[in-house]
C-alpha cells in the first residue's frame, strides 16, 4: 500500500473507536505494537520493514492531526503511540562493540518509531547501518506532521536481554543484517532472571527502571504510560483450576516492576499510567492458548469461558485501595 494512500484516507479513526467502545474516548493510542507489524519474515526483508514502518508513522501522525483538530479541545483528551521495548545490556562488560550493539538495539526497536515523533528524523544509527536508500526520508511537510505527534508515549515492557555485536551479511539486505546484533538470555551460563512460561520472557524488573531513565534523557522526558507489563505461565493441563489460580510469582513480578517505576518517578520520569497484561487469560500470538497472562483464570474447556480471580487479582484489588502500603514503594 502506498504512503499517499495510507495518509490521505478519509476515514475518521476517533469516530470509529467511539463507535466500537460505545462512548467518547479520552485517551487514545493511534498505533500500537508497531515493530510487530513490519518485521514479518514474508516479502522483501531488506526494504518492506522500513516502508511499512514509514507508513505506520505517517498514518499515526495523520490520526493525531485529526484528533487534535476535531476532538482534543472539547474532550480534554490525550493521544499517543505505543511501542514495545525490552532493556538491553552488553553481553560482555567493557566491550565497546557490545555496548554499541545495545544502543543500536534500542534504536532499531524503540527509536525507529519514537525518534521521528520526537525529533522528526530516524535515529542516526539506522541511517548509518541501513545501506543504500532503503530507509525512507521524511519530506519537509511530513516532518512538520510527524514531529510532536504525541501527548504520551506508550511503552510495553516485559523483559531484558543481553546483546552481542555480530558481523552482518552486507551482501544480503535484511533487517537483521542491518541491525547485526545477537540476543541472549544468559551470560556465562547464568540466566538474566527467572524464566516465565514463554521462552523469550525472563523476569528482570530492574530493566524497566533503566528504560525509563533512558527515555527521559534521550527523548526530552515525555509523558509515559506503561501500556503493557505482565507475566505468563504455561497452561498446564495437569493443574486444577484451584492450583492454577495460585500465582505468587505474578504478584511479585508486578510488585517489583511497580517499585522500580516508583524509583524512576522519584528521579523525575513522567510515568502517568500503568496497565497490566492481562486482565484475563487470552489467545496469545504464536502460543495460542498454551500460556496464561491473565490475573483472571479463564476456563476454555467448559464452553462458557467461566472466569475465576487468581490471587494476583486479589492483590491488585488491595493495591488499588492502598498502593503505598501494599508495594512498600513509599521510600
From TrEMBL:
A GO term, aspect molecular function: beta-glucosidase activity
UniProt KW keywords: Glycosidase, Hydrolase
Chain intervals with Polar residues compositional bias: 1-10
Keyword Kinase part of the UniProt annotation: no
Region (Disordered): 1-21
Source species, domain of life: Eukaryota
One Pfam match: Glyco_hydro_1
Gene Ontology biological process: carbohydrate metabolic process
Homology family: Belongs to the glycosyl hydrolase 1 family.
Identification of the protein by name: Beta-glucosidase-like
Organism in which the protein naturally occurs: Olea europaea subsp. europaea
